[in-house]
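User: My instructor asked us to take a sequence, write out its structure as tokens, and then describe one feature of it. I'm not sure where to start. Here is the sequence I was given:
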Amino acid sequence: MTTISFDEDGVDAVYRGTEFRLERELIEDALQKEYEDATDHEVLQMIEEDPELSGEPRRIGDIVGTPSA
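Assistant: Let's start with the prediction itself. The structure tokens for your sequence are:
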């Protein structure tokens, strides 16, 4: 199981017991979109090969309280 926690500058993650951080710029480069417009599901797919996705994807901007452009 992967645990992710978002803030305005990136994502703290725990994957298979390893803690690490994905910086905002890395996520934007990997997904080719603004950080706020990326979704939690997209970030999970960056970390895990075949994640168990549940519920509707949520924009990072909505999670951290940043309005869309």
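For the description part of your assignment, you could build on this observation: Residues 2-64 form one domain. Try explaining in your own words what that tells you about the chain.
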